[in-house]
Design brief:
There is one protein chain. The chain is α/β, with parallel strands linked by helices. The chain has two domains: 149 residues, UDP-N-acetylmuramoyl-L-alanine:D-glutamate ligase, CATH 3.40.1190; 166 residues, Rossmann fold. It is built from twelve helices and twelve strands. The strands form two sheets. It has a six-stranded parallel sheet, sandwiched between helices. α6 packs parallel to α10. The radius of gyration is 21 Å and the shape is globular.
Length: 344
């Protein structure tokens, strides 16, 4: 795959989402592409992102000015591919103009959030040559192409090496919806069985913690000392993950698509405890490797932690790698049937 994109020019718009935009850009460049990257959103402040979702009209002037500047910078360039993630802020006028400027370019959109959370995206779907989504239900409802997310080389390296295990259970993530209550239940079960647990539960601010504890039942029974209010540096996260046997993943209740963390654990050969029942239909699912729990009645069978991990077939696993993901979205894979999902 090293030179599949040699001398190809790609316009890449993607919101800042941890370092995934950098990972995708690095993958495209490694395969030989020349990439022009722009943040899909004009601003990443909490206030700006909130206004974008509540009512796009509040930030229309800011968005238009930002995309006019992009248009001026790229007006004399010709692209082979236009690759956009989310398109929540991207104006329809920009999409139409960029297509006119590059009539032979393949223009694709990737959604890694449910359409229900992307109200500004629906009206733009027909402007793309193909729209991909990680959510099977959205694909069936809106006629999109199903494409799960990816793991990068960092997680492949974790799978290759065999470090000394320190933790039986690992979780690092933002605490939303019912995550705290589920994590609390899993932790209690593991500690009852004398298994080591590492939880890093993140909330953006102490004010938000007190608001949620006061106004919702999400954090009932919690103590502020259980939470962190700064994100964990990525190198620390990777180090802790290497030392862990199993990872817990709790998707948002309104979401059916597999999270990035789920696919990353596939790459890292880690056992997974998840609330996402839809995972049993994927081609990499094996009950030795993945434990599905009921979010209303959380039970992790004790034998799950003692059964051996069953390696996933290399051809199946490769389809979830970041390089294959890029080539698939750009329409360059030989197999375009997207057979990730196996009905049972």
């Amino acid at each position: 795959m090293e030179y599949h994109l040699k001398n190809k020019k790609i316009l890449f718009l993607c919101p800042l989402f941890f370092n995934y935009h950098k990972k995708l850009m690095n993958a495209m460049e490694w395969m030989g592409a020349e990439v022009d990257y722009y943040d899909e959103r004009p601003s990443n402040t909490f206030f700006s992102k909130a206004l974008l979702r509540i009512n796009r009209n509040f930030v229309t002037l800011q968005i238009n000015k930002y995309y006019q500047e992009i248009s001026l910078e790229i007006k004399n360039k010709k692209y082979d591919y236009i690759f956009i993630c989310q398109a929540e802020a991207t104006p329809k006028s920009f999409l139409k103009d960029i297509k006119k400027m590059n009539p032979n370019a393949r223009m694709v959109l990737m959604l890694w959030d449910s359409v229900a959370n992307k109200v500004n995206t629906l009206e733009k779907l027909d402007l793309f040559d193909e729209v991909f989504s990680f959510d099977k239900q959205d694909c069936e409802q809106f006629g999109l192409t199903f494409r799960p997310l990816f793991f990068d080389k960092e997680y492949e390296q974790i799978a290759i090496k065999e470090p000394t295990l320190v933790y039986d259970l690992f979780f690092v993530g933002t605490v939303h919806s019912d995550r705290y209550q589920i994590l609390k239940a899993v932790k209690q079960q593991f500690e009852k069985n004398h298994l080591a647990v590492f939880l890093y539960m993140f909330i953006p601010s102490k004010i938000m913690y007190y608001q949620r504890k006061l106004l919702t039942s999400d954090l009932t029974g919690s103590e502020i000392s259980e939470f962190s209010f700064e994100g964990m540096p990525s190198h620390q996260l990777t180090a802790k993950l290497k030392q862990s046997k199993a990872v817990v993943d709790i998707q948002h209740p309104k979401q059916t698509g597999l999270t990035m963390r789920t696919i990353e654990m596939l790459g890292a050969n880690k056992k997974l405890i998840t609330t996402n029942r839809d995972i049993q239909h994927y081609d990499f699912y094996h009950p030795n490797n993945i434990c599905i729990v009921d979010r209303e009645k959380v039970v992790v069978p004790t034998e799950f932690m003692t059964t051996p991990f069953v390696p996933v077939d290399k051809k199946i696993k490769e389809k979830y790698s970041i390089n294959y993901f890029v080539l698939d979205v750009l329409g360059l894979t030989e197999d375009n049937e997207h057979d990730f999902y196996v009905q049972k």
